[in-house]
Amino acid sequence: DELISQIAAGEVVERPASAVRELVDNALDAGARQVTVRLLAGGVRLISVEDDGVGIPPEELPVALRRHATSKISNLHDLESVNTMGFRGEALAAISSVSETALLSRTQDQASAFLLDARSGELRPAARSRGTTVEVKELFFSTPARRKFLKTDATELAHCVEAVRRHALARPDVGFAIWHEGKLVEQWRSTLETADTADENRQREALDRRLSDVMGADFLEDSVAVAFKLGNVTVTGRAGLPDAARSRADQQFCYVNGRFVRDKVLTHAARSAYEDVLHGQKQPVYALFVEIDPLRVDVNVHPTKIEVRFRDSREVHQAVRHAVENALAVPRA
Ligand code: ADP
Ligand code: MG
Q1: Domains (ranges, CATH) in the chain?
Q2: Which ligand is nearest to the CA of 87?
Q3: Which of 38, 109, 128, 143 could bond to 179 as cystine, CB 3.0-4.6 Å?
């Protein structure tokens, strides 16, 4: 049983960055406005993710660690129209089976926080304000074979930062901070007040500010706004101008309903839009946000949810291609 859960864990947690991504997903699902990630040794010795979300009541702390015990899905219809980042109830179970995990949490109506040590099962009162801190120590300590595949601390740290960066681009309304070995590595302050979240102009401004914070101020100058709707698909974001000097291979960000994805349909569509205007072998830089009816996309394809399957991929391809072509003012054949 221990073995099976460790094998399953391998699919969800490949390296510290995968744990970081899952824990930040959970913080966002809990309505956090500020997420702080603290790491030691590239996340191998410690990953701590602290949020100011709704918290977990003490009686649910042990449940949160159990496999397939999710609070987010109660029936099959939910599974098809899922709008939280997590929904499989696997992440915490997987992470805690390959590390020393502790949950510290407090809900609004509790007099104190509670700390659960996953290994011993001990639950005791502790101190903190509303929200949750998940502490993951000594990742892969019991699976040395997997630990051997980890790269240097610097490389693992870079992957962890990238995982948070992907969240940060999608959520300008949330503040993020990343600490490594006691030093602040990145900090992106919230650029949107909750009161403004319904205002489309404010949203666009907030996203632009976050894009410039995360991708560099020159990206805003060297890019154009994308805003396009085709049938069921809405595409927004920014597309880098083809002659922008800062063209880099790791600066293509695609989101589907707020979730960062790696998807051939989307990258191919963007690539096609750039084809006629992109000279040489340069990679276009872009951040594209695709909104689509959840019933028309399956996010339950891969344990890490980084891959999706569209019900009508031609429609999505067309929408993204035209969106980027329009933004770049590419004459359409
Ligand atoms: P999933 O996110 O797929 O539901 P997880 O294993 O990631 O599964 O988390 C299990 C459960 O633990 C969640 O459904 C949620 O109820 C609770 N949980 C985990 N992290 C947090 C958090 N930061 N704040 C509040 N609740 C949390
Ligand atoms: Mg989750």
Answers
A1: 2-188 (3.30.565.10), 216-328 (3.30.230.10)
A2: 1
A3: 38
